[in-house]
Hints:
The protein is of the alpha+beta class. It is 37% helix and 25% strand. Among the domains are: 6-105, Rossmann fold; 134-203, ATP-grasp fold, A domain (Dna Ligase, domain 1, 2-Layer Sandwich), CATH 3.30.1490.20; 353-451, ATP-grasp fold, B domain (D-amino Acid Aminotransferase, Chain A, domain 1, 2-Layer Sandwich); 461-500. The protein has helices at 13-25, 42-46, 65-74, 91-99, 109-116, 118-125, 143-153, 179-194, 251-267, 299-306, 310-318, 398-411, 421-429, 431-434, 442-446, 458-478, 485-500; strands spanning 6-9, 29-35, 49-54, 79-81, 103-104, 157-165, 168-173, 199-203, 209-217, 223-235, 238-244, 272-280, 286-292, 335-342, 344-345, 351-352, 355-356, 359-361, 368-372, 379-380, 387-395, 413-415. Bound molecules: adenosine-5'-diphosphate (2 copies) and magnesium ion (MG).
Amino acid sequence: MSKIKKLLIANRGEISLRIIRSAHEMGIQTVAVFSEADRLAPHVRLANEAVCIGPAPASLSYLMMDRIIQVALELGVDAIHPGYGFLSENALFAQKTIDAGLLFVGPSPSAIATMGDKLRAKQAVSGYGIPLVPGTDEPIRDIEKAKQVALSIGYPILIKASAGGGGKGMRIVEHAGEFDAQMKRAVSEAESAFGDPAVFIEKYISSPKHIEIQILGDQHGQIVHLFERECSIQRRHQKVVEEAPSATLTETVRQKMGEAAVNVAKACNYYGAGTVEFIVDKELNFYFLEMNTRLQVEHPVTELITGLDLVKEQIRIAEGQALSFTQNDLQIQGHAIEIRVYAEDPQNNFLPDTGTLTRYRPPLGPGIRVDDGFEEGMDIPVYYDPMIGKLIVYDVSREKAIRRTIRAIDEFQLSGVKNTLAFCRFVMTHPEFTSASFTTKFVEDHFHPTSLNQELSETEKLAVAAFIGTWLDEQRTAALPLPASAGNKSKSLWKNRTKHG
Ligand code: ADP
Ligand code: ADP
Ligand code: MG
């Protein structure tokens, strides 16, 4: 066991802040690294020390393994936390960190290597009785053979990059006629995005749910699960809204999935925090998709329903401490919802947007947690993930948590960049969401760019009326005729409100 006294966070944005905060509460000193584009970022100020590691592109800064380790050694750091994205699932970085005599806050390099490759992961868990999506268990080398497999599985099928992640590297093939073309695209995408051309076939499960299990394991072989997160609201195969617990699972299925997840972790001698992702069909049959060997974007919903701090647990595990609780000590309390606030335009295919946050005032009040990495006046850089932050809401029941999320979205003041707030509000009020019958097809089936041009809610009408009232008063005091900009002023507010809630 060795106590961590100084931690370097090899990341940026909200997750860097998130980790720094837990470290400080544990009395651990922190070192932030940053690129030239992030000089003014809050994580640079919040950490005890901060070092610029290179120019804006991630390949020249946040992905520079040796540079980051060198900074750690120079500043007398004893552990590195990789956050999510960037180097977090890079086995070589974990190994280099360990070789430099530092602790890596994450699983072993071998567990990362095994689970970071979807095919290897499937091979590793075979023999543990984990249900898998039907498909090929080796990279496709022979196209004709692959076509035969596709035919026997039955179309539609999915071609997936074995090294894929972040929703990238997936191609749906509806019928045999498309196979060759889609295969070619998949291989070249896999090569260019992940530097690994290996692809495989999976049956495309129609209208499933994505439900994942959070696990925690210590270095003494104890592994527990922290229940599930429902993550079916996705665009581009990537999550935008998550909640815990899932309103669909029965206690029996929850327990079975939990056990399966623990077995997946056992299959690679896992320690640290990890997530086992499953796809679930209407009959609540579940199939293993992949394991993410890191802290996940949506981890806060699990923290809120279990009362645990996952970053602190990660740090304690890295120090060699044993888990201080068992499975029986864990219980689900209440309900948590997370919405991801992305700088994206929901009315234009969720295309990333950049610009300046001319106004940025997150909501406050009971049950609200905002994990973000930006402040009013800051620019959203083009170089990184377009996530501005996450709004996480807690209440005693799902219904109350949904109401609270809507209240919080309505309070959120955000302008300057297109964003997903109004889209998330649309989700919160949709009958398929409130009834919990939604699937990963939700956006495709129910969302249309015009969905956001709804009537204003009562609150919004009151806000608009109040604004116009004040404005008219001001005009009267000034005793001036109504300027031509009058219409624009109220119109811009109108636009703002419809855009943001
Ligand atoms: P999560 O998996 O935590 O639910 P995401 O799918 O949004 O959330 O991924 C988290 C972050 O990691 C995102 O910034 C995403 O772009 C990035 N990411 C995940 N896996 C990979 C990968 N294999 N290659 C590149 N980026 C990845
Ligand atoms: P990534 O590494 O990019 O996160 P995943 O395997 O976790 O890749 O899949 C991401 C998403 O793609 C899932 O949440 C789901 O919505 C969809 N998906 C993946 N595999 C299948 C499948 N076999 N059938 C239907 N949808 C799938
Ligand atoms: Mg995934």
